[in-house]
Amino acid sequence: MTHSALGYNETDLASLATTSSAAREAAQLSELLKTHREMLSGLQELEELCLSNPNPNTANQVRKITITPELLERRTVRFCLRIALSIVIIAGSSACMLSGSVFLFVLGLIVQGAMYVHLIELQHSVLHMQAFESPRVARLVGFCLGIPMMISFSDFQYRHLRHHKHLGTMQNTETFNYSHSKLNTLKGFLAASFDYSRWQTMCQRLIKAFTGKQITEGVNSLIEMRVRHEYQIFGVILLSVSLLSMLLGTPMPLILWLLPLFAAEPVHFLLELPEHFGLPAHSNSDVFQNTRIWGGSWFARWFTHNTNYHLAHHFHQRVPMDKLPELTKQLDPYIPNSSRSQSYPGFYWEVLRGKIRPDFLDMN
User: Fold this and answer.
1) What is the pTM of this model?
2) How far is Cα 57 from Cα 36, in angstroms, rounded to an integer?
3) Domain locations along the chain
4) What's phi and psi for 168, nearest 5 deg?
């Protein structure tokens, strides 16, 4: 029997090693179970947000509203055709940018940037589970729709669903934090429209995704993990396109992808602005008071995926966007004039004239 310098024999050392190993395994198992519970909690929270019912504060106004099974039915094939059409248009706009004509290059850039925004409107439908029954399919398609503007599907979904839940309270936050100050001047309106500060946040998140730093705040560990993975994939795609440009000896692959973003940001700002601007989105939980409905041409309705029926969307988020006109017909008698605008141009003109101003809680 041999003894160590501290007086332990081989049996004692083996026993200590076994005890130490068991303690490490127990600690690892405890940490694994904690992570598992956090993931389950995150999934439960996400499911509850997706399946939430209309705002209970509007119940006294909506007793005659009927949400039929047909109104909630998904039109998956039609939705996929929308995506296919968008891809065709983007391919056509890219061809214009490659034509060698300056006019066609600028035209293609603007159209492609606008179509990036259209894809985000489709991503919005997917995050509400309006297009696909399977959460996995929804996440895959939703992630792909966000690639052009590098908008994380999981982050967008979580924050947007919480926006639905907390609309009309101080907890309400928007996913895209555009500036709403000084919009009653042309200079202020243009400055807000061409605000590219989101790119800085996007770059910071790309770096954090690969350095292990926390990417998001106020989200559960499941969403944090998913957002990190999605930004890591964005980074890999960006690196791949950069390498392709180097191999081809031309920056055109990067130009075709990234340059249209200069057009996408102002278009996205203009589409987002009418939804709640000038209404008590932080102080009145009545959806008929804090959300707007406005008119639009057939092209505007197609391009925004019926976002102009935004009040109906907030009334019942599970109704697919292409069925919002039907729901709006039932809600119309309850909608006050203060929550109506005639059209997109009409709304912007009212903002520029100062007739529609931001709620003081909405200033940033």
Assistant:
1) 0.85
2) 35
3) 74-362
4) 95, 5
